[in-house]
Amino acid sequence: MVLTPSILRRLGLGIAVRLRESKFLIVLACAPLLLFTSLSSGADQAQTSTRERFESEAVLHWQPLQASMLPMSGEESWTHDFRSTNPKYAKSNWSKRVMRFWLTESAGKVICDGYDRSGKWTARSVYCFNPSYAFTLKQATPDGPYFITKHGRDPATFESVRSYVTTLLSALQMSYMMADGRPLAELVKSRGFEVLSCSVVEIGDRKLVAVECRFNAPDGYAPGAREARLVLDPGADWRVVSTVLKYGAWTISADVSYAPNQSSYGAILRATEHAVATDGAEAMDTYEFSKLSFESTSPHELLLPAFGLPEIRSESNIRFWRLLTAGLSLIGIGVLLYFAYRRRAQADAAKPCS
User: pTM here?
Assistant: First the structure.
């Protein structure tokens, strides 16, 4: 066959077409890989950006969020349901407490009413601390008198009552607290804290941030790593929306919803905490809040007379009055002895000389 110019052009065109087809097929074969690489790179960049935002912003908001919770007053209903099939745990029990509370930076009061499963009132306890002293009270009947179970002006009594008030109202802190009782602002700075992943999640019309992390157990607990997943709301001071904490045999899940139109983003409306152990125990705690206010209460509401009881004078005042009474008594005795001596001297001088 004679290779004329037209034949050569056809051969060249066919080769070019086949080359273009080969290149197209190669690009088509590589497209999924390129797309996956591009998406992975974009996801990594987005996660890095979200993580940087979490690490730079969250701590700056948690501390003001905590401060915005005081002063505070309101009511809390706390229902606790614990079930166990393992003898190493406490027996199954159910309880309900309705608490009226007032809190400031230096004082606090909780009036706690207990109820059984049928809704019957069982007892009332009061826990109160103020800058001068701390005390606890009991009331056996709804209209009965209060009687003092603890009172003191010493630091030990003050700290004991303050700590118990904090424990009773621990659900108020769930907006900025891990389930093991540590403020998130402290936890993220603790030794061993590590962010495993950080990403944006959408719930309804809200864009939230999910953080998976690992950290060490707090002091006083069995050593070992703990893992948690936090869902936070960066548009509301990075408050907690939900948490899942895993340690040992336990997994604790918590969900928090908030009261609208409050001066603090930490104003909780309702919270649930579900704890499950793999070795036969389960607990469900439900917290509901109402009548929340962020205004100071009268200092007189934190004193014994608010419960119809007289003030108890401090030991230092008692000692002062005892010393004053003893001093005045000695002065009085001295004056009496002085006048008795003068009368005797005058009587001796009036006697005629023999």
Answer: 0.76
